[in-house]
Amino acid sequence: MSARKRSALWNHFETEGSDSKKAKCSYCAQVLALPNGNVGNLGRHMKSKHPTIPLVPERQALPPSSSATSPPNTTPSVPALEQINLEPLRPRYNNPQPTIRDFAIKPLPPRRAEKIDNQLMMMIAKEFHPLRLVEEEEFAKFVALLNPSYSLPTRKTISESILPKQYEKLLQVTKNKLATDSAAVCLSTDGWTSINNESFVAVTAHYISHDAAEIKLETVLLGCIKYTERHTAENICELLKTFMNDWQIKNKVTAISSDNAANMIAAVRAGNWRHIACLAHSINRAVQTSLGHISSTHVKVKQVVEYFKRSSHAQTKLKEIQKQLNVPDLKLKQDVATRWNSTYDMLTRIVAIKDAVIATLALLRNDLSLSTDDWQIIEQAIPILKIFNDVTTEISAEKNVTLSKVSPLYKIMSNFVKGLLRSAPNTPRMPQIQSLLTTLDQQLDRRFAHLESNDMYAEATILDPRFKRRGFKHDRNYETALNVLKQRVGRISQDPETIPRSTTSQSQAEAPVHPAGNPSIWEEFDREVAGLRPENSIAAGIVEVDRYIQEPMLSRQGNPLTWWHQRKEVYPHLFRYMLKRLHLTATSVPCERIFSKAGYTLSERRSRLASKKLEQLLFIGANAHLLKCEK
């Protein structure tokens, strides 16, 4: 070690550069020169910039000199040998033992502290913690145990510095990724009212990103903003245009998914965009309408559940009887008016503990007991409603291709309901359940039958190697969609950008070259062939579609995007068109999830959080996966 490296000042500096002629402060990152290797600059810097930091760790103070303060030695003399043996036990004041203060941990370098600050911000945003978490005493103790050198930022520092910086950084990353990785973008949008009675609108973007290594469906939040304007079609249309312009995706948007609210549909049409009605919302409307036939039983079940929710005595008694009957210790579930599948959950749960509920009500509230007919209606309704619950769960997956599933799922639901209706003469069934089935059948046909003839749905189904023709209920809709697809892919095949380099080079190499002034006998023939090339390009696209259709179908559990990624060189034109279809989302559920997160973030204990801060927290929480983990 060099002489200057032995200086205590090097506890506070790091060598900068390969020639070791500069040093960087571990606290403020300022770089200082070392003229002739002299560390004087370092000492002056510490005194002027960091006067509160001790340069040398304090050591145990030396005891007073024995000659000056020791009382006269009155003990008897001891043999010299004993004095020698005891010598090692005496303190060596000329080389004192280090104390715990000697090993005090240095403050963290600024760069390391910044990384921890950013990770703290991520935790707050993604796990819905309040900003005042950093002011909670036990959390501060926990952090101090993990790393005593780290100083927690204040709530004000997080709110006014760390949060805005992290938001701006992630905003730029998200914009760059969307601009460079997306060939086509589908938007989904929805509205929400907070606990403070403030209105918010969220917009998410869905696209397929791919490179040489992988392909995947991406979902990013463009924004969840406070919206003070009236929710008219014109205002919503202008808001969507603003999002598209800010994110520079106006020419990439292929469709917009939303619920079936009239103002949303009108807003999409006003912007001349394609609209995708949220499948989950459509199923919700269809089932809610059909549940009207069992409304009497539904109301009775709600009253039973509400009674147990309100009475702790009833809950305790129910639990005791469940234990006596050796049935699962389950609690009743309450439904939510806007979500039909919560009704399904409520009915399923009460049947699961039917005997315990009957016994408890007989003891405590016999007037609330359900009749035999009520129990039959519930038990017959559950298997019917289950398929719609399963479809809603299936279609709400955010990371999976969804639009291509709509036609196959409609086919499954329709065949299921029609099959039950056909079996009516041979199946004992309550009249209310028969009416429920009839209405479900009508609702399904009214809301979904036409989607097979919609080119977006039809082409997405054909281009999903799991479905193709098998995804259609009617063959004529498949044949029509396939012919349109061939024409569109044929037109794409004329675009030079989609032709592989080897093909383009080969075409150029085969182009006839005639010496000047020496026309070839083939000149006229070559002109005719050149005129046929565009048609041949169209034919090449059509051939691609035909070859794709003849490929074996992919397993239903397979990943259609991976399948296409492995064959993008085999079907270059079809691959390009696939990017504009399989990214389309069948639901606006991603936006609804944003609002669920907003509800967590803006709970009663954080209801005073400013709307701008809420927008930034939600953006970070939704898009944090785009940032590479900092080591």
Task: Give the class from helix and strand content and strand pairing.
Answer: alpha/beta
DSSP helix fraction: 40-55%
Strand count, sense and closure of the main sheet? 5 strands, mixed
Strand content: 5-15%
What general outline do the C-alpha atoms trace? flat
Number of helices: 24
Which consecutive residue ranges, at least 5 long each, have pLDDT under 50? Answer: 58-94, 498-512, 598-607
Average the pLDDT over all residues and give the rounded result.
Answer: 83
N- to C-terminal distance: 30 Å
By DSSP, the count of extended strands is: 8
Over all CA atoms, what is the radius of gyration? Answer: 37 Å
What order do the strands of the largest sheet run in, or round the barrel if closed? 6-5-4-7-8
Task: Explain this structure.
- The protein is of the alpha/beta class and 631 residues long.
- Among the domains are: 1-57 and 102-107, no CATH class; 284-450, no CATH class; 454-512 and 525-578, no CATH class.
- 52% of the residues lie in helices and 8% in strands.
- It is built from 24 helices and 8 strands.
- The protein has helices at 40-49, 66-69, 80-86, 110-126, 137-146, 155-181, 233-247, 262-270, 279-291, 295-310, 312-324, 340-352, 354-364, 372-395, 406-422, 431-448, 455-462, 475-492, 501-510, 523-550, 560-566, 572-578, 589-601, 611-623; strands at residues 13-16, 22-25, 31-33, 185-193, 199-210, 215-226, 253-258, 275-277.
- Strands 6-5-4-7-8 form a 5-stranded mixed sheet. A 3-stranded antiparallel sheet has the order 1-2-3, with no helix packed on it.
- A hairpin with a 5-residue loop joins strand 2 (22-25) and strand 3.
- Helix 6 packs across helix 24, helix 11 crosses helix 13 (354-364) and helix 14 packs antiparallel against helix 15.
- The longest helix has 28 residues, at 523-550.
- The protein is flat.
